[in-house]
Amino acid sequence: MSWYLLILAGLFEIGWAIGLEYSEGFSKPIPTLGTAVAMIVSLVLLSQAVEDLPIGTAYAVWTGIGAVGTASLGIVLFDESVSILRMGFIGLIVLGIVGLHAAGGH
Asked: Cα separations (Å) of 76 from 28, 45, 71, 98, 105?
């Protein structure tokens, strides 16, 4: 169950990171509210996941999910640059997440 909470926490991390772009420096109320709610939900879920998972593993996976999702959505939503090299490094983060799950968790 902790891994599911951790994955969900990572998805909410993507939500608040993308929300930062839409909030335009917290100047837009609705995107700012959504960003704040996603931040809180993400941290609550992360805190629940670390009750059973090692903090180092959980934090690395949480930030990895956030990094991969945010970078991917940045390409899709905000026309950020994409290259073979960039995609390769994003793939390495995914590989790290999978490796951490396989190697060290409950």
From this structure: 22, 26, 9, 23, 32
Query: What is the gyration radius of the CA atoms in the chain, in angstroms?
Result: 15
Domain ranges in the chain are 2-103
- For residue 100, the surrounding DSSP H or E stretch is helix 84-103
Q: What is the mean pLDDT of each run of 10 residues along the chain (106 residues)?
A: 97 98 97 98 98 96 98 97 97 97 78
Residue 34 buriedness (CB in 10 A; 0-12 / 13-18 / 19+): middle
Report the C-alpha gap between 97 and 64 in whole angstroms.
7
Residues in the chain, total: 106
